[in-house]
Specification:
The protein is of the alpha+beta class. Among the domains are: 75 residues, Thrombin, subunit H; 65 residues, Trypsin-like serine proteases (Thrombin, subunit H). The chain is 19% helix and 41% strand. The strands form two sheets. It has a seven-stranded antiparallel beta sheet with strand order 5-4-1-2-3-7-6. A six-stranded antiparallel beta barrel has the order 8-9-10-13-12-11. Strand 2 and strand 3 form a beta hairpin. 36% of the residues are buried.
Length: 201
């Protein structure tokens, strides 16, 4: 076997492995969806839906971040149909966590952005209004000391859902809306809340 043939075979094998790797790579939007979960809430004033972001998922425990106002007056909470067994809130921010005693199937834990997005950066928001998957696209407008403000139109039920950048990294948590604007908790708030409650230990 001559050197030319060996080089040709090597090139074909390399090209094949690269193509397979590209095919296996998950689309960033689909990856963001995989990190997001639907919440069904039952209460004395009626039922409702919200969204959450999965940050821990083991056979014995799943932990989801969501908006505090989603869980304020409810009797029971279900994450993807699984009953929530523990709830924790932040006193000064609209952020909360819920836990289950079992793994949430077909979902993966999120990865966090290293810093807040820059102005006009395009991002996506994942929500489950009425338990139906919906995706919003928007841009960052203002980042204050307390909140992120985006030009993004969302619906009731998006609350607690994540905002993801082009790499499907979590960079905010949706907590409110006003016409064409969306309000989100900042990365720093999310990090502090996770650390204070030791949610990843």
């Amino acid at each position: 076997m001559n050197k030319y043939l060996l080089v040709l075979i090597g090139s074909i094998l390399l090209f094949t492995s690269v193509c397979q790797a590209q095919e296996e790579k998950i689309n960033p939007v689909q990856e963001a969806v995989n990190h997001s979960v639907a919440l069904f809430l039952t209460g004395m004033v009626g039922d409702g839906t919200c969204t959450g972001v999965l940050i821990k998922n083991t056979p014995k425990e799943a932990v989801v971040l969501t908006a505090k106002h989603c869980i304020g007056t409810v009797n029971e909470i279900y994450v993807e149909g699984i009953l929530v067994t523990e709830v924790g809130i932040n006193k000064s921010h609209d952020i909360a966590y819920v836990k289950t005693n079992e793994e949430i199937p077909n979902k993966t834990v999120t990865h966090f952005a290293k810093k807040n997005p820059v102005m006009k950066e395009t991002v996506i928001g994942i929500g489950y209004p009425l338990l139906d998957l919906d995706i919003a696209v928007g841009q960052y407008r203002v980042i204050t000391d307390k909140y992120q403000i985006l030009s993004m139109v969302i619906k009731p039920g998006f609350s607690g859902g994540g905002i993801f950048n082009k790499d499907a990294k979590l960079c905010g948590l949706m907590v409110g809306m006003e016409r064409t604007l969306t309000v989100a908790e900042k990365l720093e708030t999310i990090y502090d809340f996770i650390n204070e409650n030791k949610l990843l230990k």
